[in-house]
Amino acid sequence: MKLSLSLAAIAALLPQALGISRWDTCGGGGVTTGKCDDGLVCVELSEYYYQCLKLAPPYSPTSTSTSTSTRTTSTTFVVVYEHPELEQLYLDFSINFYKHLDDDYVQYKFFDVRNIDICLPRCQEVQVLRSSAEFGSAIPGTLNKDYTWPSPSSVDYFLGKGMNFFRIPFMMERMSPPATGLTGPFDSAYLSGLKTIVNYITSKGGYAALDPHNYARYNGSVITDVSLFKTWWKNMATEFLTNDHVIFDLNNEPWGIPATDAAALMQAGLDGVRAAGATQSVFVQGTSWTGAWSWESSGNGDAFKTISDPLNNVVIEMHQYLDTDGSGTNSTCVSPTVGAERLQVATNWLKANNKKGFIGELGAGSNNDCISAIRGALCLMQTSDVWIGFAWWAAGPWWGNYYQSIEPPSGPAIARILPEALLPFA
Question: How is this protein annotated for GO cellular component (predicted)?
């Protein structure tokens, strides 16, 4: 999600002199390093995920208000929301908003794991579960303190409901420590954790997408050396060469770079996977947070026309949220028809260019308009013959009361989104 995540671990560590950009993570797990750019506020969406959002004018550094929940706790809010209606929404879900203009933060975003059978010719599966291996700011970090991996019991829950695709985000800096760089050896413990959950999923018949959740960045900088990225993916694909239920999701939500650069990076990663001898599916993503609704206007439409795979097994991954700015930070959808409307241009592009697409992040609120919009989007996808599936944002053991979470047993979106909008298409 650009927030994305636009409500979506880290993209990249920005130099200390720079502020954290809008939609990016500004901390988690009680750790804060750096601070948001001017005009942005760091919002705690869950215990482990904070994000920089835009302040609503007029802004006063000392202007705060205290609200008391209908439950037994009180929550402090800063009256500077990008969407003022978020105050009651997040109060209802006991999510705290904090203003941190002087504290230090780290840039991060979201992460997830999803569900879809990539072998199906039509969209007939839904998201599953989201991982948390990109949570937190510490590198390498401590397992179960700074980050965690998906719960096997949650994997079983989703598999039992017919969902069989899991997108597993992780942090490249933890996998490839900056001291040795992208071509150095992988961290053995972190790689072992990834393999453990991947093998659990695939041994049960599910599909696991490896998702470096880095926004086309590594160690604080945009990845510009495509040869290093190619080598990194050659090495990673080699680790999973014989597991035909693994999918290579090359990098999450590039942003702030030209579409041509994003396409070149993705082509290099794809070439690296094939150089390893891997034949599994490869997912590629465009710039501007790989948004479906902006696929043409962002330049991705032109840049990705020539993406090529000798095995013809590449999938264009796009993300789509249904609130006003497409960020996934607001539970109110634009209209009951916005889902299909926002996917129409991308659908037309896929057809015109003989490509297959996948919605890697889909998100909206638990209300009638949003549920209608989700259904409309999925009906369009199912009847278009160009989308192989979609994944819901989000699930995972550390999402807490985040309003889009379908993490069992009691994620806020389980009550309506799961039975009314997702399972009918599973």
Answer: extracellular region
Number of domains the chain contains: 1
Is 82 known to be catalytic? no
Is residue 330 situated within a structural domain?
A: yes
Q: Which residue is catalytic, options 173, 253, 317, 407?
A: 253
**What letter represents residue 117's amino acid?**
D
Pair of tokens at residue 401? 């009361």
Q: Is residue 81 part of a domain?
A: no
- Residue 337 to residue 370: CA distance in whole angstroms: 9
Catalytic (active site) residue 239 = no
Residue numbers of the domain that contains 160:
152-425
Distance CA 9, CA 25 (A): 7
Q: Any idea how long the chain is?
A: 426
Confidence (pTM): 0.73
Q: Is residue 199 part of a domain?
A: yes
Q: Are 253 and 6 in contact (CB under 8 A)?
A: yes
Residue spans of the chain under pLDDT 50: 1-17, 56-131
Rounded CA gap, 108 and 9, in Å? 5
pLDDT tens digits along 148-179: 898 899 999 999 998 889 999 999 999 999 99
Q: Using CA atoms, how far apart are residues 345 and 336, in angstroms rounded to an integer?
A: 18
How far apart, in whole angstroms, are the C-alpha atoms of residue 13 and residue 183? Answer: 19
* Buried/exposed code over 38-65 (b: 16+ C-beta within 10 A; e: otherwise): eebbbbbbbbbbbbbbbbeeeeeeeeee
Contact 334, 367 (CB under 8 A): no
CATH number (domain holding residue 360): 3.20.20.80
Q: For 48-61, how does the pLDDT look when each residue is reduced to its tens digit (9 = 90+)?
A: 667 777 654 332 33
Q: What is the pLDDT of residues 80-104, one digit of tens each?
A: 223 333 333 233 322 222 222 223 2
Q: Which two tokens stand for residue 93?
A: 């879900």
Q: Does 90 fall in a domain?
A: no
Report d(CA 209, CA 128) in Å as an integer: 12
Which two three-digit tokens encode residue 111?
A: 């992460």
Cβ pair 44, 3 in contact under 8 A: no
DSSP 34-99: S-BPTTEEEEEEETTEEEEEEPPSS--TT-EEEEE-SSS-EEEEES--SSTTHHHHHHHTT-----
CB 126 within 8 A of CB 426: yes
